[in-house]
Write a structure and sequence with these properties.
Layout: H1 39-43, H2 54-69, H3 75-92, H4 97-285, H5 291-318, H6 320-338, H7 344-359, H8 365-389, H9 394-407, H10 411-423, H11 444-450, H12 459-477, H13 492-502, H14 505-508, H15 512-532, H16 534-548, H17 559-575
Length: about 575
């Protein structure tokens, strides 16, 4: 509780006006004059609040007493007032706990408010910082996008400027080229004019010089021609005499050489005839034939088969049922031959299927003969195509052919004639004579056909094709069979083949001979060595000498490679 008393005079020159706090009420212990509404303004006194100092209050009391003593109040009232003032001053020094608590509470509230304000300000500051950071990030992202956009625009501008610069450079370069082209054209035109004038002058000078030289050359040629005619006349007379002498000498030598060759050939033929005559009895006893006899027999059989085959084929194709039956069996045979592989099971299956196609059910004789011709053609065609590409396929094909030769009656003659037709005399082997078996002389086309040579076939293709067929034939000679085959397909024919080739120089001189001998040794050379032993080694030694001396294969360029293959095959066979 506070008491208001008049404030003593302040030593300060300017007094502070009384504060009226909203929470502080006026003390009920104060005494007021009758004119308290304007006491402050009239006397300049103020009431003492609770914050006044005690010493100051005593001074104020004395001053109030002095003022009261000079007033118009009675002395008793003045005394009462003085006492009251003194009592109030004493009471003013009382310390109220509520006010202390209120003051402390006010301070704590103030401190709490300041702390809350500090926390709030801190949160607000954090929020402002976070907001500023987000705003900064957003602004940075916006700035980055704007920067990328500006960079893209700058790049686009740079590219456009570069393209414009290139286009401008190209335009200026084109203008420069056009300008220089025009300049060069003008220069060339002027130079052409100058050159034309110089050329005209040069031609005029050359024409004058040419005429002079022609005149001199004409006179010189006339002189030289006279001298040359005289010299040529003398030289021609001498050359004519020399040619006549050389011609006479060459004719004489040629006649002597032909006579010597004819004499040698006659002696050789005579010796061979005598040898054949001496061996005729032994051959007949052993049922052996000469190469020419085999050729004649095979040629006659071929001509008969060709006539019979063409007739039977036409007869079979004339009938609808026979043609249908023949085509059905033919397709089975060619299909099975194309499926052959090099294993015993496949060989047995293909052989059995072909036998069933020929025998089951039995066929009429014309269809059967035509079908056997088809079978022989299928085997030979397989030899000409697949065996050339893969020589190892000759072994199973030869085994199938051997199985069919032993199981199909009449197939041996058909197959032999087809072999003679496709290989000529190489299957026998025998030299083809100048006349056919019917006495007619071969022309060039007939001779090539008799040799098995096709019209559009070179020597390399002919050698490869014949070698493929002969590889299958040699595989038939070495095949395993249950019963003996026909005479031309028995194993001794392998020895006879080499013996006949060695005894016929005309055959050995052909470039085909070394290739066929190499093929024969590749197929059955090792087996022949085991069969005939030392005699086979002598045969190979004789062939090796012929290769070394180039008596085998002749001088043709194609024979060089075949001779090397034959030599390597002989060495491999002897080593085995």
């Amino acid at each position: 509780m506070r008491f208001g008393l008049p404030r003593s005079s302040s030593p300060a020159s300017i007094r502070r006006p009384k504060r009226h706090l909203p929470y502080r009420s006026t003390s009920t212990y104060g005494l007021f004059s009758d004119s308290d509404s304007d006491s402050d303004s009239s006397s300049g006194d103020t009431w003492l609040d609770s914050d006044s100092d005690p010493d100051t209050n005593l001074d104020v009391k004395s001053q109030a007493s002095k003022k009261l003593s000079g007033s118009t109040l009675p002395s008793a009232e003045q005394t009462l007032v003085a006492d009251t003032v003194a009592a109030i001053r004493v009471r003013a020094q009382y310390n109220d706990p509520f006010e202390d608590w209120e003051r402390e509470a006010r301070k704590e509230a103030f401190y709490a408010a300041r702390r809350q304000q500090a926390v709030t300000r801190a949160h607000q500051e954090s929020a402002r910082i976070a907001a500023r950071g987000q705003n900064a990030q957003l602004q940075a992202a916006v700035l980055a996008r704007e920067l990328d956009a500006v960079a893209a625009q700058l790049r686009a501008v740079g590219i456009r400027q570069s393209q414009e610069a290139q286009a401008r450079d190209a335009h200026w370069a084109a203008q420069d080229r056009a300008r220089w082209t025009s300049i060069n054209a003008v220069i060339e035109a002027e130079e052409a004019k100058v050159r034309a004038a110089l050329e005209k002058e040069r031609k005029e000078r050359e024409e004058v010089e040419r005429k002079r030289m022609e005149e001199e050359e004409r006179r010189r040629k006339e002189e030289d021609e006279r001298k040359k005619e005289d010299e040529e006349r003398r030289r021609a007379d001498a050359e004519r005499k020399r040619r006549e002498e050389e011609k006479e000498e060459a004719g004489r030598k040629k006649r002597e050489k032909e006579e010597a060759e004819q004499k040698k050939q006659k002696e050789l033929e005579k010796m061979q005839a005598e040898e054949l005559q001496r061996q005729e009895g032994a051959r007949k006893a052993l049922s052996m034939t000469s190469p020419q006899e085999d050729w004649v027999e095979a040629r006659r059989m071929l001509k008969a088969r060709l006539y019979l085959g063409s007739y039977l084929t036409a007869l079979v194709k004339a009938g609808t049922e026979s043609k249908k039956l023949w085509n059905e069996r033919r397709r089975k045979i060619t299909h099975r031959v194309g499926q052959l592989t090099n294993d015993p099971q496949s060989i047995a299956q293909v052989s059995q299927h072909i036998l069933e196609a020929v025998h089951n059910p039995p066929l009429p004789e014309p269809i059967r003969t035509a079908l056997l011709s088809t079978l022989a053609k299928a085997i030979i065609l397989q030899a000409e195509t697949e065996v050339i590409a893969e020589p190892r396929s000759a072994t199973p094909l030869g085994q199938v052919a051997a199985n069919l030769l032993g199981a199909i009656e009449g197939f041996a003659d058909v197959f032999w004639t087809k072999l003679v037709q496709r290989t000529g005399g190489w299957i026998v082997p025998a030299s083809i004579p100048a006349q056919d078996v019917d006495g007619n002389t071969f022309d060039k086309a007939a001779f090539l056909k008799a040799r098995g040579h096709r019209a559009d076939e070179g020597i390399a293709e002919y050698t490869a094709r014949v070698a493929g067929i002969m590889r299958v034939y040699f595989a038939v000679l070495g095949a395993r069979v249950d019963a003996p085959l026909a005479r031309m397909f028995q194993r001794p024919r392998f020895w006879a083949y080499f013996a006949r080739m060695v005894s016929q120089p005309r055959l050995l001189a052909s470039p085909v001979a070394p290739e066929l001998l190499a093929v024969a040794l590749d197929v059955a050379g090792a087996n022949a060595k085991r069969t005939w032993g030392a005699q086979w080694i002598k045969m190979l030694a004789l062939l090796y000498d012929g290769v070394e001396m180039k008596r085998i294969g002749g001088d043709a360029p194609e024979a060089q490679g075949t001779r090397v293959r034959l030599q390597l095959q002989i060495e491999r066979t002897l080593g085995a």
